[in-house]
Amino acid sequence: MHIVVLAGGIGGAKFLAGVRAVARESGSEVTAVVNVGDDVTLHGLRICPDLDSVMYTLGGGADPERGWGRRGETWTVKEELTAYGAEPTWFGLGDRDLATHLVRTRMLDAGYPLSAVTEALCTRWQPGVRLLPATDDRVETHVVVEDDRSGPQGEAARAGLVAGGSQKAIHFQEWWVRHRAALPAKRFVFVGAEASKPAAGVLEALAAADAVLVAPSNPVVSIAPILAVGGIRDALTAPVVGVSPIIGGAPVRGMADKCLAAVQTECSAAGVGGLYGARSAGGLLDGWLVDTSDADVTVPGVTVRSHDLWMRDEASTAAIVRAALEVAGV
Amino acid sequence: MHIVVLAGGIGGAKFLAGVRAVARESGSEVTAVVNVGDDVTLHGLRICPDLDSVMYTLGGGADPERGWGRRGETWTVKEELTAYGAEPTWFGLGDRDLATHLVRTRMLDAGYPLSAVTEALCTRWQPGVRLLPATDDRVETHVVVEDDRSGPQGEAARAGLVAGGSQKAIHFQEWWVRHRAALPAKRFVFVGAEASKPAAGVLEALAAADAVLVAPSNPVVSIAPILAVGGIRDALTAPVVGVSPIIGGAPVRGMADKCLAAVQTECSAAGVGGLYGARSAGGLLDGWLVDTSDADVTVPGVTVRSHDLWMRDEASTAAIVRAALEVAGV
């Protein structure tokens, strides 16, 4: 059996550990198609937070307490960059993590596509599943927020001297990490998505898939940018089953509520299920797995099943995966 | 008074601390024109060992025991790069040091010349002298060595299948750091020197100089690549006084003996003085300061004076500088 998982970072990584466990039992192949919308270039380094979260977690190198970055991380380079006044200072750039970005940046500069770079990095980490970026093209999530009109430009706009817009777009990382998602998001823009193509191997994996699982990742900024890559939606021919990232009206982790508000979607299993929509109505899902506490949820046109969705450990996560595969009928 | 110092890395940095002390007493200005021949791009980072040695030393950030790199240095990124199998692994890339290279690389990529980048880095370090790279162009010292003809190319050459040369050129850092200068050097090539121009500010500093001091740096791989930059030799109109890097037939530090052998020059104060040569005979020097143990040295056409040349501390180094300035007649 071949399972394809659409995944974001930390939640996706945890879920994939369960998928890997199930695949090992059944001798299945797993391909993770990972969001690149969070990717950013800082200090000249190309940083792919979601790919790295998955790679480190599955490779045993992730920090289990902090939830992101490397185990035993240190922050010497970041402190030094700050001493130089090098911006930005708000991004958590660890020393161990930085080596990954150096290797990646060097390979990208040499002309390798991100999929090949990811494969090269994985020769060290041996994640046990095939990791593919959604696209080898540059697709970056930007967040449209109210312009606070600070600075000279803002002053001029307030004074009516220039046609200052009242909104501005900032990179997702700036919104998420620097502002802790506290600036109300008007909307999300996946810059470059329209012209993008799936990364090498993505369409082949989807064509060979017996089931596509949508990890309990952030639907708005992790899954949507994957689906925004040209050609991926149309290639979803296998049954698609999503696992709800919302349990009892709250995100399992992260700040999905802030993102859902921007797309006028209720922060609930029903809300996210409806946002994804039924395949029969032009949406994504054949099946939707919700937590037992959300067992009464319905999504028109979608088979909804419930299961304990708390990913406490690999065993409980594997049970979730088995339940999702069962909904997929495989 | 305006003093210009031609300098390499560690020896040059120590010497410059003495020059700065003397300049502070006399209210003089100091410009250091620093070798860039050791510069190298590794892991996508532009590394300028001599500029950094001077900057860290004068800025109080150098490791006094190791003699190079940063005080309190750690090596996390290097260990991680090695875990990825990223070559080369032989270069001592410290975490603190790396931040400097990141800032530099980013600015160079943005189009700033190395002189502007150096000035920006120095706003943090406040070295107290003006630091200029000899050139903003890329000039790199390569070392011609015997080809050991290892690998398939070598095999083919030995078998007479391809016209394999018996020599190859490697970057200075590979020869110096990786091979500890143990491969006999046939000659040194300053790649790019012919087409290079002095960095912004160098010619102006030389034109304004009351004296030019040649630091007790490696004559072959630190001073020669500065002089190889187009236009610098011709701009030396002020009196030029060199300070011998050789005391009693041995280099004060480093492996100058290995370099001098490659240019068929005796490792002695007389040998290096002769290598630099008298200005009256088309050479570099008006004066040559040697150690008291070398007081009997003569260099045809050059005023030779002796002084205790051991740079034990800033005071003893300042005394050397005063003696050199006296030879220069200023």
Automatic annotation (TrEMBL), chains A, B:
<dbReference type="InterPro" id="IPR038136">
    <property type="entry name" value="CofD-like_dom_sf"/>
</dbReference>
<dbReference type="InterPro" id="IPR002882">
    <property type="entry name" value="CofD"/>
</dbReference>
<keyword id="KW-0808">Transferase</keyword>
<dbReference type="GO" id="GO:0043743">
    <property type="term" value="F:LPPG:FO 2-phospho-L-lactate transferase activity"/>
</dbReference>
<dbReference type="Pfam" id="PF01933">
    <property type="entry name" value="CofD"/>
</dbReference>
<protein>
    <submittedName>
        <fullName>2-phospho-L-lactate transferase</fullName>
        <ecNumber>2.7.8.28</ecNumber>
    </submittedName>
</protein>
<dbReference type="InterPro" id="IPR010115">
    <property type="entry name" value="FbiA/CofD"/>
</dbReference>
<keyword id="KW-0460">Magnesium</keyword>
